[in-house]
């Protein structure tokens, strides 16, 4: 399967950030798919800039409904209408800051499928869960509760992001990453042998150019979801170079 390196800009980026996107497009490597997920305010302009290039533009969240009285929210259909091709759902910062449940995340992932978007569905344990030896149980519950009913290997991507590794400079050992990714793969295959075997499972959490090669070489790691290091085109491309 073709790896995917996706950049989650989080609440960063003004119109001036267009220059970084242009640099990503200019430097795109051929060994993996690239995606940039800017804040919603930049979706339309970024999608216009990326049109015709190999870089897909994604949003960072969507509502489960198509439209309606939900002040401040945006639907998957609106994201597609803006020219974007993907959306991140269930990021741990949304789960923590906006009390998103697994059921909410499932509705969002299903909405993405309805609108024809790629969904990157995020799961991951907290530091306390890791220390208590409850990582696998937590990942299993999140998969059970938040996967959409139908697995689509072309349009559904899982991102394993240990909460304690996000923005901290800490990463799990490659052995720990391999264990969690193998477990996710096994669960996906049990649900749908064909789609589950070919869905991409990304690792996220303090991925940098310096550690990308080692992390991307782990079995069942099919790319990266990058936060801080995606804000600078040179660093983002340095991570993607793990696949060059
Ligand atoms: P960092 O790469 O900044 O640790 O963030 C990871 C992340 O949350 C991507 O969604």
Helices and strands in order:
Blueprint: E1 4-8, H1 18-27, E2 33-37, H2 43-50, E3 55-59, H3 76-81, E4 86-89, H4 92-97, H5 102-114, E5 118-123, H6 127-131, H7 135-146, E6 156-160, H8 174-191, H9 193-198, E7 200-204, H10 209-216, E8 223-226, H11 233-240
Parallel strand pairs: 1-2, 1-8, 2-3, 3-4, 4-5, 5-6, 6-7, 7-8
The chain binds 1,3-dihydroxyacetonephosphate.
β-strand percent reads: 15-25%
Query: Mind describing the biggest β-sheet?
Result: 8 strands, parallel, barrel
CATH superfamily caption: Aldolase class I
| Domains, number | 1
CATH architecture: Alpha-Beta Barrel
- Please give the count of helices: 11
Query: What are the low-pLDDT stretches, counting only 5+ consecutive residues below 50?
Result: none
Compressed to H and E, one letter per element, the order equals: EHEHEHEHHEHHEHHEHEH
Strand order of the largest sheet: 1-2-3-4-5-6-7-8
Ends apart, CA distance between termini:
15 Å
Query: What is the 3D shape?
Result: globular
Rg is: 16 Å
The CATH class, by name, is: Alpha Beta
Task: Give the helix level as a range of percent.
Answer: 40-55%
Average the pLDDT over all residues and give the rounded result. 97
Looking at the structure, the CATH topology is TIM Barrel
**How many beta-strand elements?**
8
| Distinct bound molecules | 1,3-dihydroxyacetonephosphate
Q: Kindly name the structural category.
A: alpha/beta
């Amino acid at each position: 399967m073709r790896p995917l390196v996706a950049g989650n800009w989080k609440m960063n980026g003004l119109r001036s950030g267009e220059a970084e996107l242009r640099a990503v497009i200019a430097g795109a490597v051929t060994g993996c798919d690239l995606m940039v997920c800017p804040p919603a305010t930049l979706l339309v302009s970024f999608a216009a800039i990326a049109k015709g290039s190999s870089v897909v533009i994604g949003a960072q969240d969507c509502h489960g409904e198509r439209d309606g009285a939900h002040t401040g929210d945006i639907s998957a259909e609106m994201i597609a209408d803006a020219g974007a091709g993907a959306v991140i759902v269930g990021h741990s910062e949304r789960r923590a800051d906006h009390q998103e449940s697994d059921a909410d995340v499932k509705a969002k992932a299903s909405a993405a499928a309805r609108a024809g978007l790629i969904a990157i569905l995020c799961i991951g344990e907290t530091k306390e869960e890791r220390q208590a030896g409850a990582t696998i149980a937590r990942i299993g519950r999140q998969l059970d509760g938040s996967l959409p009913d139908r697995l689509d290997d072309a349009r559904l991507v899982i991102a394993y992001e240990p909460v304690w590794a996000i923005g901290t400079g800490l990463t799990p050992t490659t052995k720990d990453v391999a264990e969690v990714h193998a477990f996710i793969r096994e669960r996906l295959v049990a649900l749908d042998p064909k789609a589950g075997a070919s869905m991409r499972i990304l690792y996220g959490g303090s991925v940098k150019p310096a550690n990308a090669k080692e992390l991307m070489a782990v079995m069942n790691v099919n790319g990266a979801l990058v936060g801080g290091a995606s804000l600078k085109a040179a660093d983002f491309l340095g991570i993607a170079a793990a696949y060059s």
